[in-house]
Amino acid sequence: MNYKEKLAACAIxxxxxxxxxxxxxxxKWAVIACDQFSSDKEYWEKEKKRxxxxxxxxxxxxxxxxxxxxxxxxPEINKTMKEYLEKDILGSLGEGFIYMNRSTPYAPGxxxxxxxxxxxxxxxxxxxxCAVRPTEGTVLERLPVRAEIRKNAVLDIPHIxxxxxxKENKLFSYLEKRESELKKVYDFDLAGxxxxxxxxxxxxxxxxxAVADIFDELNRKSDFLFAVGDGNHSLGAAKxxxxxxxxxxxxxxHPSRYALVELENIHDEGVHFHPIHRVLFDCSAEKFTEDLxxxxxTEFSEKASWKEMEDEVIALSGxxxxxxxxxxGEHYSVVRFENKEAFLASEAFHAFxxxxxxxxxxxxxxxxxxxxxxxxxSSNEKNIGFYLPPVNKSTFFSFISTRGPMPRKTFSIxxxxxxxxxxxxxxxxx
Length: 430
Hints:
Blueprint: H1 3-9, E1 12-13, E2 16-20, H2 26-29, H3 41-51, H4 70-86, E3 90-95, E4 97-104, E5 107-118, E6 132-134, H5 143-151, E7 155-156, E8 161-164, H6 170-178, E9 183-189, E10 196-202, H7 205-221, E11 226-230, H8 232-249, E12 258-265, E13 273-275, E14 277-281, H9 285-293, E15 298-303, H10 306-318, E16 322-328, E17 331-337, H11 345-357, E18 364-368, H12 371-378, E19 384-387, H13 396-403, E20 411-413, E21 426-427
Parallel strand pairs: 6-11, 8-12
Antiparallel strand pairs: 1-5, 2-3, 4-5, 4-10, 5-12, 7-21, 8-11, 9-10, 13-20, 14-18, 14-19, 15-17, 16-17, 16-19
């Protein structure tokens, strides 16, 4: 097989990448993923002012805080995409992967590879055995608005991060050795102190062949190659739209068959896994605790401080014990769960929480990124916060292989500032 055939067998296509022709405009061109700061319109208003008067991906995306304005904003986005193509603002680099290196406020380096994934080899259906798999359950109700955005889009602009399980780091070790010989296509500081980003084009047949051989080797050793780390629902919407186009046209070579994504090695030290905590609002801690204690297999222990609670949860997690912290006002507890069917603390907890929430003894649940925010929200005695342990990287792929997607909102890759910035594009039209 040639390199294209080997890549196709691994659900990968070499994309034709588009980038702005003005190299010095990239700081304003690149903006953070649309699903960040979703409750902070002020952040996005500041971004609008920062990028005003110049071409920017901000004009090509719909930040999630504006989803309620999609009827008005989506046609404008699609119009701007067409204008950027017609005015020759974007230029083709030709077919190739982009090997990228990102520094963030939290990591000196994180490697990525921009590729086109074949949606024929991806499914969000439960139990599907395919090369590209979701890492969390897909909420079908969240797909239509995202599919609507992509339906008339002429550009594919990704914020999707996809993980591969390359324990020996063969892919990025090869690319790092070759970096000085590759064509540099961008090298700039991201706005707002979010780090630095550089990218090089992988286009020579010898390099593409070597990369294809590495993917082929990884594919032969694994049950599946790729796990969707960030952007599960965006990729799900792309899949939904592709299925519709395929059914209507029968065109198996349509550009919508593929989605541009950034691949990262889960074992990269710059890829940080963070737990996503929970907060119940307007909820009686006394009543909740009483109900939880009555749930089979739970064990409580009171703690004197946040740190004592946190240290014990992390220690127990390292020993394979399902545990989480519970906070309300100045009260701290560690809750252990005995659940032989669960593989994660969040899974054991939701066996109780999901049925309990159906009784409606609270006003809202929120999923929290960051200990500081959890601590602040839980300080109100009307609320209850739940501190979850981090997900184990070493068992991540085996969990997906044997159990399927993780419970919704189990983990996050990095802090908000570490999320992917929109940069590279690909045509969704011929």
